[in-house]
Amino acid sequence: MVQFTEILPQILNQIPPFPSLPMNKNQLFRARPWPGFPTPKSVGNFGDANCMEQLLIHCANALENNDATLAQQILWVLNNIAPPDGDSNQRLACGFLRALIARAAKIGTCKLLTAMANVQANHLAMNNHKFSIIELAGFVDLTPWHRFGFTAANAAVLEAVEGYSVVHIVDLSLTHCMQIPTLIDSISTRLDPPPLIKLTVAGTMEDFPPMLDLSYDELGMKLVNFARSRNIMMDFRVIPSSSKDGFSTLIEELKMQHFVRAENGEALVINCHMMLHYIPEETLSSNIINPNQPQISTRTLFLESIRGLDPTVVVLVDEDADFTSSSLVNRLRSAYNYLWIPYDTMDTFLPRGSKQRVWYEADICWKIENVISNEGPQRVERLEPKSKWVQRMRDACFRGVGFSDDAIMEVKSMLDEHAAGWGVKKEEEDHVVLTWKGHNVVFATAWLPV
Q1: Nearest to 362 by CA among 207, 209, 181
Q2: Angle between helices 328-346 and 49-64 (to 10 degrees)
Q3: What is the average pLDDT value for the chain, to the nearest integer?
Q4: What mean pLDDT is predicted for residues 17-25?
Q5: Residue 300 scores a pLDDT above 80
Q6: By three-state DSSP, how is residue 6 classified?
Q7: pLDDT recorded at residue 203
Q8: For residues 273 and 146, is the Cβ–Cβ distance under 8 A?
Q9: Which of 96, 265, 342, 384 could anchor a disulfide with 388, C-beta 3.0 to 4.6 Å?
Q10: Can you tell me whether residue 319 is helix, strand or coil?
Q11: What is the C-alpha to C-alpha distance for residues 343 and 362, in angstroms, rounded to an integer?
Q12: Which residues are CB-contacts of 367 (< 8 A; sequence separation ≥ 6)?
């Protein structure tokens, strides 16, 4: 079999250099026939996932080596074989194409790349949708991506807080408290009498998708009214705090309440749903008391601070991938071999042109662009795999607690509402992992202080 690296030079030799002037914007990101190069309908194996991944990797290598000419030529090839309205592999490659163009435009002077990057920015801006509550609920329900974590976490919380008259939930969630109504429902039906719920959220100013079209104060009023409809009293509080500094403001506020909570016998639940990977893993904090001690990462400081609050249970749910490499090529490989999953799932039940699919894939494109085109503080999508978070939790003096058989049954029952490719498996310490066609997607873990 001919290796791709052997035929790549032949492909590139058939492609003229990028024009020195930008083309009409309407022509950008569309397939254009070139002399000697096949159109998308006849690209054959050039349009398969492996070929497109290799092209993307070659382009990333070229960008890292400052080979602008080669990078531009490969981008032109990709622009012919990865249309934004193609199959799932082509749409995935198109997302990476746009991200690489954005990165190349930042470091280069090619007018065409700049124009293409502007079109890409406009495309993302049009899809930078702010959801209503109803829209966000529908968005979350599309796949088990978030519902898996909701279901597993709720089961762990219910077991941990049984017998408490007051339950304080600190919700660090990417989905703006969308888990809380399901938790309220479970508490109202399974805990008798139901406890008073205190809900605290970190009201950040960061624009991580999905974004909401109402304030947290308005959201809190809706949640309090919903809880009242289930005969549950709820207090809602917003503490302006950011992941950029490890939610330090939130931690300090919780420390001030620690002794009051201990005296009143309140349960403290720390619910972390796909938010902790936004804490900068590279930012180091100096030890002021003893400068000779090794520096500690912000993520480690956050977990140690949480441990100091002596929580009743900590639930950590996140995506099982690694986007932390300093190498662009390594990050691209990792992201490509993980983010094919949401594109693949969309093809199982949402038609092309669907508004929900546009929103869902715009969310993924935002993630791709952040991972590929940004560096430094702007690169906030820094996922770590389950194994790394497990080690972090152990180092912070937590021990894992397994999910019960009833919890697993609930998760499986929820998965029955979705496509047949979804599954769940137990791993070490009975942590649970959501899978798609056998590939790890999202992990859910529950922890108790040692």
Answers
A1: 209
A2: 150
A3: 85
A4: 35
A5: yes
A6: helix
A7: 86
A8: yes
A9: 384
A10: strand
A11: 11
A12: 335, 339, 381
User: In whole angstroms, what is the distance from residue 49 CA to residue 87 CA?
Assistant: 10
Cα(21)–Cα(376) distance, integer angstroms: 31
The tokens of 212 are what? Answer: 């909401």
CA 118/CA 104 separation, integer angstroms: 12
Query: In whole angstroms, how large is the CA radius of gyration of the chain?
Result: 24
CA 152 from centre of chain? 18
Query: Please, are residues 99 and 369 in contact by the beta-carbon 8 Å criterion?
Result: yes
Distances in whole angstroms, Cα of residue 306 to Cα of each of 130, 154, 302, 309: 31, 19, 6, 5
Name the pTM for this structure. Answer: 0.87
Is 301's pLDDT higher than 90? yes
Cα distance between residue 246 and residue 303, in whole Å: 9
Q: Is the pLDDT of residue 22 over 70?
A: no
Measured N-to-C along each axis, helices 49-64 and 4-13 cross at an angle, to the nearest 10 degrees, of 70
| High-pLDDT (> 90) share of the chain, % | 68
Instruction: Give the CA distances from residue 160 to residues 148, 314, 320, 399, 427, in Å, rounded to whole numbers and listed in that order.
Output: 19, 10, 25, 14, 21
* Domains within the chain, CATH numbers bracketed: 4-126+331-378 (no CATH), 131-321+383-449 (3.40.50.150)
Helix ranges, 265-353 (H): 298-308, 328-346
Q: What share of the chain is helix, strand, coil (3-state, %, to 5)?
A: 55, 15, 30
pLDDT (average), residues 188-211: 91
Going by C-beta distance under 8 Å and a sequence separation of 6 or more, which residues neighbour residue 250? 170, 200, 202, 239, 241
Number of H helices, E strands in the chain: 15, 13
3-state secondary structure (DSSP) of residue 239: strand
Q: What kind and span of H or E run contains 324?
A: none
Residues shown for the chain: 450
Q: What is the pLDDT of residues 411-436, one digit of tens each?
A: 999 999 999 999 999 987 789 999 99
3-state helix/strand/coil string of 85-153: CCCHHHHHHHHHHHHHHHHHHHHCCCHHHHHHHHHHHHHHHHCCCEECHHHHHHHHHCCHHHHHHHHHH
Tokens of 407: 């919890």
Q: How many whole angstroms separate alpha carbon 100 and alpha carbon 375?
A: 13
